[in-house]
Write a structure and sequence with these properties.
By secondary structure, the chain is α+β, with helices and mostly antiparallel strands. Helix content is about 35%, strand content about 10%. The structure holds FE2/S2 (inorganic) cluster.
Length: about 220
């Protein structure tokens, strides 16, 4: 059920590592991009491509909350409420988003376009708190004003929450920094490029990922 492109990318991941199993996590993330989540058939297909058992692949897919084993909103807005973000107003951010989107955390809009998630998962962007993740993109420094702009953007439907998703993190899209996960620009203030062990890039390793679903 995976696209040929995804299968080729997974094959390339497998070739990167001495132990093919190491490619399992990035391969599952690639597979998730196809359908937005990981149906059992997709997990089984990834397992076959990587050369591990379906049980092993399923174990990993259900361990990390950023891997989704059930269908969700087209745009998933995950608000980090870990302590550093909490100290910078994550509960206010969550409440403002819930009010603006007219859904409670854990719910999805009636059209299935937007899902709001409260998560205790640290996204490694504590120094840019409060923040949330829109699918694979980060929205940071979410002041009340920036949050209002984000809500307008999400509600407009025209951007699907991804306007400027690949833009340089200069805060021009909605008054917030917009950084794709894995982009080393997430290391410092907007415009800086120095890598950081706590930046979004760290998500590629299991050490920064936490288990469980939304808190
Ligand atoms: S605590 Fe929220 S990103 Fe780290």
């Amino acid at each position: 059920m995976l696209t040929q492109d995804t299968r080729a990318r997974i094959a390339a991941e497998v070739r990167k590592y001495p132990q093919p199993r190491t490619a399992l996590l990035p391969s599952l993330k690639l597979a998730q991009r196809d359908a937005g989540w990981l149906p059992p058939d997709a997990i089984a297909e990834v397992a076959e491509l990587v050369g591990v058992s379906s049980a092993s692949a399923n174990e990993l897919a259900t361990f990390y909350s950023m891997l989704r084993t059930r269908p969700g909103g087209e745009t998933v807005v995950e608000v980090c409420v870990q302590l550093p973000c909490a100290l910078r107003g994550s509960e206010r951010l969550l409440a403002q988003l819930a009010h603006g989107l007219e859904i409670a955390p854990g719910e999805m809009t009636a059209d299935g376009r937007i899902e709001l998630v409260r998560t205790a998962e640290c996204f490694g962007s504590c120094h840019r708190a409060p923040m949330c993740r829109l699918n694979d993109d980060y929205r940071e420094f979410l002041t009340p004003e920036a949050t209002d702009a984000l809500i307008r953007e999400l509600r407009s439907g025209g951007t699907n929450g991804r306007a400027g998703a690949h833009a340089v993190a200069d805060g021009t899209a909605s008054g917030t920094a917009v950084i794709e996960a894995g982009d080393p620009r997430g290391a410092g203030p907007p415009g800086e490029t120095a890598p950081s062990p706590h930046g979004p890039d760290a998500q590629n390793g299991p050490d920064i990922m936490t288990r469980g679903g939304a808190a």
